[in-house]
Design a protein that fits this description.
single chain; mainly alpha; 14 helices; 0% strand
Length: 406
C-alpha cells in the first residue's frame, strides 16, 4: 500500500550505520562552519598567543625596569655617538681614545647645561622672589574684587585647612621622603649603568650584536642581522633629527619669551628664567608631542605670574606657533627617509606608553615603534636576501617611504 511504505531515503537516514563517522564526520562538521567564522577563529587564537607573549614580556621588563631603562638610554646615546667614534677611528685615532673623547664631550655638554641652569636660577633668585610676592599680592587683590570677593581672612582660612589636611596625611609625606631617598639611590645606580653600558656598546657593539645574532637558528641569522642593522640605522636617524627638532623648539620658545619680556618691561631680562626654560624645552622635546606642550605650559605660567595675563596670552601664541612649526614642518622629517610613522600612531603610542610606564614609556615609545616598524617591513620585504649590510636606500625601500629600484 502507498501509505504503508517508507521512502528509501527515510530508511537510509534512520540507519545508524549511514551516519558519517571519523574523518568524514569531521569534514561535515567543518563544512558547517562559515568561512568567516573559521578565519576569525584562526586569527583569534594567534592574536591571543601574541598578546600573551607581549604581556609576559612587559611584565618581565617592568620587574627589571631599573636595568632596562638605563640600558635603553645607553642605546639611544650610543646611536648618537657611534658615528663620531667611527669618524675618529677612520682618521687613525685609537678606538679607546675615540670612545673616551666622545664620552667626555657628552658629559661636558650635560654638565655645562646643568651649571648654566643652576647659575641662572641663583642669579635671579632674589628678583624672582620679589616678583613672586608682588604677583601673589595682585592675585589676592583679584580674588577680593567682584565677582569672587574672597577677602584675605577667607583666603588664610583656606590655606590653614590645606595645612591641616597635609598634617593629617603626614604618613604620606614620610613615605614620600623615604621613596625620594630610594629614588635617589636608583638614579645614581641608573646613571652608572648608563655610563658603563654606553662604553661597552661603543667599544664592542659589533661583538655584542654578533653574540645576539648567534642565539637564533642558522637559517634566521641573516634576516635577524639585516633587520637589526636596519633598526639601528633607523634609530640613529631618529635621534639625530630629534635633536634638531628639540633645538628648534628650544630656540623658538626661548626667543619668544625673551621678546615678550623685553616688549612689556623694556628690560632684556624682563622675562625670568629664559635660558632654563629653553633648556627645559630642549630636554622635554625628546618626548614627542607631550614634552614640548608641557614645557610650553611652564613658560606660559611664568609669563602669567611675573608679567600678567596679556603677556601670558602672547606667550601662548608663541608656543602654539612653535608647535605648528614642529607638527607640520619638522616632525615629518623626524623619521627621515628610513621610516614613516603616522602622526596618529605617534600620539597613541606616546599616550599608551605614558599610561603604562610614565615618563620612560613616553620617551621610548616613538623610537620603539619606529624601529619595530622598519624591522618588520625589512624582513617582510626580503631585502635581507640581497643586502647583508643595509644602507639608507635599503631601509627606505623596506619601510615603504620610497620605491625600491629593485
Amino acid at each position: 500500500m502507498i501509505f504503508g511504505r517508507k521512502k528509501k531515503s527515510d530508511t537510509r537516514t534512520s540507519n545508524p550505520r549511514d551516519i558519517p563517522v571519523g574523518p568524514a564526520r569531521k569534514l561535515q562538521v567543518e563544512g558547517a562552519i562559515p568561512m568567516g567564522v573559521e578565519i576569525g577563529g584562526q586569527f583569534a587564537w594567534r592574536l591571543l598567543a601574541i598578546g600573551a607573549v607581549v604581556v609576559v614580556f612587559g611584565f618581565v621588563v617592568a620587574q627589571l625596569r631599573d636595568i632596562v631603562v638605563p640600558l635603553l638610554i645607553a642605546v639611544l646615546i650610543a646611536s648618537l655617538l657611534v658615528p663620531l667614534v667611527n669618524l675618529l677611528v677612520r682618521h687613525k685615532w685609537p678606538r679607546g681614545l675615540a670612545v673616551a673623547l666622545a664620552m667626555l664631550v657628552t658629559l661636558g655638554i650635560v654638565a655645562g647645561l646643568i651649571l648654566l641652569v643652576v647659575s641662572q636660577i641663583r642669579a635671579g633668585s632674589a628678583d624672582i622672589g620679589t616678583r613672586a610676592v608682588a604677583s601673589f599680592d595682585d592675585f589676592k587683590a583679584f580674588l577680593a574684587a567682584p565677582p569672587l570677593e574672597i577677602n584675605e581672612e577667607d583666603l588664610n582660612g583656606y590655606i590653614d585647612q590645606l595645612f591641616k589636611a597635609a598634617q593629617a596625611d603626614s604618613s604620606v609625606f614620610v613615605t614620600g621622603a623615604l621613596s625620594v631617598g630610594t629614588t635617589g639611590l636608583h638614579v645614581i645606580t641608573g646613571f652608572l649603568l648608563v655610563i658603563f653600558s654606553t662604553l661597552f656598546i661603543l667599544i664592542d657593539g659589533k661583538g655584542i650584536w654578533g653574540w645576539v645574532v648567534r642565539l637564533f637558528p642558522r637559517r634566521a641569522r641573516r634576516a635577524v642581522d639585516g633587520a637589526g642593522k636596519a633598526g639601528w640605522l633607523t634609530l640613529s636617524t631618529f635621534v639625530k633629527v630629534q635633536i634638531f627638532v628639540a633645538f628648534v623648539d628650544a630656540v623658538g620658545i626661548g626667543l619668544g619669551a625673551f621678546i615678550v619680556g623685553w616688549a612689556f618691561t623694556g628690560d632684556p631680562g624682563g622675562f625670568p628664567l629664559v635660558i632654563p626654560i629653553a633648556i627645559l624645552v630642549f630636554l622635554a622635546s625628546f618626548i614627542p608631542v607631550v614634552g614640548a606642550v608641557v614645557s610650553g605650559v611652564v613658560a606660559i605660567l611664568i609669563a602669567l605670574i611675573f608679567l600678567g595675563p596679556i603677556p601670558a596670552v602672547i606667550m601662548l601664541g608663541v608656543v602654539l606657533l612653535v608647535q605648528q612649526l614642529e607638527g607640520h614642518v619638522l616632525q615629518p622629517i623626524v623619521m627621515g627617509t628610513a621610516v614613516k610613522v603616522h602622526p596618529l600612531a605617534v600620539v597613541l603610542a606616546v599616550a599608551a606608553a605614558s599610561f603604562i610606564a610614565g615618563i620612560p614609556g613616553a620617551l621610548f615609545a616613538v623610537p620603539l615603534i619606529a624601529v619595530l616598524n622598519v624591522v618588520v617591513k625589512y624582513i617582510a620585504s626580503g631585502t635581507w636576501r640581497e643586502a647583508r649590510n643595509p644602507g639608507v636606500k635599503d631601509v627606505a625601500a623596506a619601510s615603504g617611504t620610497v620605491k625600491s629600484n629593485g
